[in-house]
Amino acid sequence: MSGKNKIDSSMMRQLSFLNQSHESSLQGNDLLESADAFAHILVASGDEDELRTVEEMLEKRYFVHCVRSGKELLQSLRQTIPDLMILDEKMPDEEVFALLNQIRSMEGCREVPAILMVQAKRTGTQIFDMEIKGLNAGVSDLILKPFAEEIVFFRVNRILELARLKQDLQREVAYQTVEAERRRQQVERLSVQVIEALVSAIDAKDEYTNGHSIRVAEYAREIAKRYGLPEKTQADIYYMALLHDIGKIGIPDTIIQKTTGLTAEEYKLVLSHPTIGAEILRHISEMPGIDTAARWHHEKYDGTGYPDGLKGEEIPQFVRIIGVADAYDAMSSKRSYRDVLPQDVVRKEIVNGKGTQFDPVFADILIRMIDEDKEYQMREK
Predict the structure, then answer these.
(1) pLDDT below 50 — which residues of the chain?
(2) What phi and psi, each to the nearest 5 degrees, are found at residue 144?
(3) Which of 295, 292, 353 lies closest to 324 in space, CA to CA?
(4) What is the pLDDT of residue 9?
(5) Helices 212-227 and 360-372 sit at what angle, rounded to 10 degrees?
(6) Shortest CA distance to 269 belongs to which of 252, 284, 246, 282?
(7) For position 90, what pLDDT does the model report?
(8) What percent of the chain has pLDDT over 90?
(9) What is the pLDDT of residue 118?
(10) Pairing of β 84-88 and β 114-119
(11) 204-372 belongs to which CATH class?
């Protein structure tokens, strides 16, 4: 049977089978057989009698397509991917295991299960060797000839069920992976929003530093990007810079907002904000180093900074980046005692601070950013 008549006949059998299934109270194996009624099975053999036997047997429950050579098999696979392949061990034009290797390299065919039809007239050792060779080539099971219909259906059902379970598992894994990433991004967005809200509250303690931490974070991230640091590191630096001044939460508003000179005691208290910030952040284990950014952002490259007098590369790289960004924003923002400094004055101060206050590498990157900023947009608006 072939062509349109074969397809129509096969479909009629499927519809008849499904109607019978719905009319009866299906139990046990009938449920499994019904569930696989629409499976597409591709059978390949050069033996016409064998092919006809398998086709007539299987089309009682499945959509069956038969081919008579390896060439036809490959051509069919290029057009339609079946749910299962059943291959004869002796193909007329190509060795079956070489054929399987070609099939596994074709797009969409790597995971298609395969059953191998082998002659039963062999010793147990020969069948065992054939099974091992088949497993190595990606064969799921063997069917012995001559065929026993019950065994054929049992093995076909079992392979189809395993394939379906595997596909269901892959879909579930893919879904859960996407869902986990969605939740991760949601938590990350929430974390950033909480951090930004906290930072805004801290910066708002002083009308002259409002928005300071966010600008410092943006400048620091851009310096890190231009230096060639990975995106993950750029993001970490951004968050560290956002929180670098969190210690100011422990400084009284009356001192932060004071427009006249500070007393020695008040100045000492202001100088404590890095250690206060580090103490607040040191228990956050998900972002190692976030407390050191708060503690050391006032350290200087020549060792004259505070609170610990670190020098050169003793200061972590990300803190050296944040340090130069912090100083830049301080100069390009309003203060109670002055307006925004002119851009050329800010640039000169960065140049003068290379190797003393600032890491010269990161200072040079910032200087290039200043030179590109023809309209002086990098400043407090």
Answers:
(1) 1-35
(2) -85, 140
(3) 353
(4) 45
(5) 110
(6) 252
(7) 86
(8) 49
(9) 87
(10) parallel
(11) mainly alpha
**Res 208: pLDDT:** 64
Distance CA 213, CA 342 (A): 21
pLDDT of residue 83: 93
Q: Token digits for 88?
A: 């004869």
Secondary structure of the chain as H, E, C letters: CCHHHHHHHHHHHHHHHHHHHHHCCCCCHHHHHHHCCCCEEEEECCCHHHHHHHHHHHCCCCEEEEECCHHHHHHHHHHCCCCEEEEECECCCCEHHHHHHHHHCCCCCCCCCEEEEEECCCCHHHHHHHHHHHHHCCCCEEEEECCCHHHHHHHHHHHHHHHHHHHHHHHHHHHHHHHHHHHHHHHHHHHHHHHHHHHHHHHCCCCCCCCHHHHHHHHHHHHHHHHCCCHHHHHHHHHHHHCCCHHHHHCCHHHHCCCCCCCHHHHHHHCCHHHHHHHHHCCCCCCCCHHHHHHHCCCCCCCCCCCCCCCHHHCCHHHHHHHHHHHHHHHCCCECCECCCCHHHHHHHHHHCECCCECHHHHHHHHHHHHHCCCCCCCCC
What pLDDT is stored for residue 62 in this prediction?
92
The CATH architecture annotation of domain 3-176 reads 3-Layer(aba) Sandwich (3.40)
In sequence order, which residues have a C-beta less than 8 Å from that of residue 234 and are 6 or more positions away? Answer: 221, 224, 225
**pTM for the structure as a whole:** 0.58
